[in-house]
Design brief:
Blueprint: H1 2-5, E1 23-29, E2 32-39, E3 50-56, H2 63-69, H3 72-79, E4 82-86, H4 98-101, H5 106-120, E5 123-133, H6 135-146, E6 153-157, H7 166-169, E7 176-182, H8 201-211, E8 219-226, E9 231-237, E10 247-252, H9 266-275
Helix pairs in contact: 3-9
Length: about 280
């Protein structure tokens, strides 16, 4: 019944369940027109269940902008996963945000997208993931907290756990977490900003470590990610988590509010990390 209801909302034509090329989807939800761009990895035929990654743009951005600037399509082609780039309502209605208080329900939007894309594609239901930059990273963590039964992992970039769900996120189903944060981020300060209700990066990763029942002391190492410049990220991995779960932070020294694509291969690192995990 759901597939039949999509007939008037898809921007491309053709039989349902036979998508083998990139497409866009548009539909109305709660009185708003919502849209998403979808990239299918090279070689996708629909013969086998394929992992799905939701990539959430930053505040004031769009799914198209996220797609053009983050190099996730090439990572998807290399590693073999679908990428969905939804449009927020200028930003995302993460927990405690103005948009959430105005009645925008982006948790319901993403839940609806999971169902619709599952009807159009052959998605592996145990390997659905979410990433996001800045505002989208706050939303990714909101989804990891409130919709964890649908996701096997989340990888927020330049974001921390939203203050309003800090307690809520400490408990619940296990979910693998990869955080990527610059230590010189002025928009989302590494050490937090209580005046703006921003938790620190350290407090945020400890929240996820507690939820995943990890040891409270991380194993810290230095990982060279660019042999030309010699750039090395500080990797903090919390050991002894619940079976099959990882909780990892990459702290990027002297890096600001950004999603690096050169000295730190963010998109490939995210893809490789997430694909190790399933529900």
């Amino acid at each position: 019944m759901l597939a039949a209801g999509l007939a008037g909302s898809c921007s491309t034509e053709g039989p349902f369940l036979k998508r083998t090329g990139d497409f866009e989807l548009s539909f109305e939800l709660h009185g708003r027109q919502r849209e998403v761009q979808v990239h299918l990895p090279a070689g996708y035929t629909g013969a086998d269940p394929t992992p799905l990654l939701f990539a959430l743009h930053g505040g004031g951005g769009s799914g198209s902008q996220m797609r053009q600037t983050r190099q996730l399509d090439p990572a998807a082609d290399e590693l073999g996963f679908i990428v969905a780039y939804p449009d927020g309502v200028l930003g995302w209605a993460y927990a405690g945000s103005d948009l959430e208080q105005q009645g925008v329900d982006d948790v319901a939007f993403v839940a609806e997208l999971i169902e619709r894309l599952d009807n159009l594609l052959v998605v592996d239901p145990d390997r659905i993931y979410v990433t996001g930059f800045s505002n989208g990273g706050f939303m990714a963590q909101t989804l990891a907290c409130r919709l964890s039964s649908s996701f096997a992992g989340a990888a927020p970039v330049a974001a921390t756990v939203p203050h309003d769900i800090a307690g809520e996120c400490r408990v619940g189903g296990r979910i693998s977490i990869l955080m990527v944060n610059g230590t010189r981020d002025q928009s989302v300060p590494y050490d937090g900003d209580p005046s703006r209700g921003l938790l620190s990066v350290d407090e945020s990763i400890r929240i996820w470590a507690a939820r995943n029942r990890c040891d409270s002391t991380p194993n810290v190492s230095s990982v060279v990610t660019d042999s030309v410049s010699g750039f090395a990220a500080r990797r903090e991995a919390y050991p002894d988590c619940a079976a099959g779960v990882e909780t990892v932070l990459y702290a990027l020294e002297d890096v600001g509010h950004q999603w690096p694509t050169t000295f730190f291969p963010t998109s490939v690192m995210i893809g490789e990390f997430l694909l190790r995990h399933h529900r």
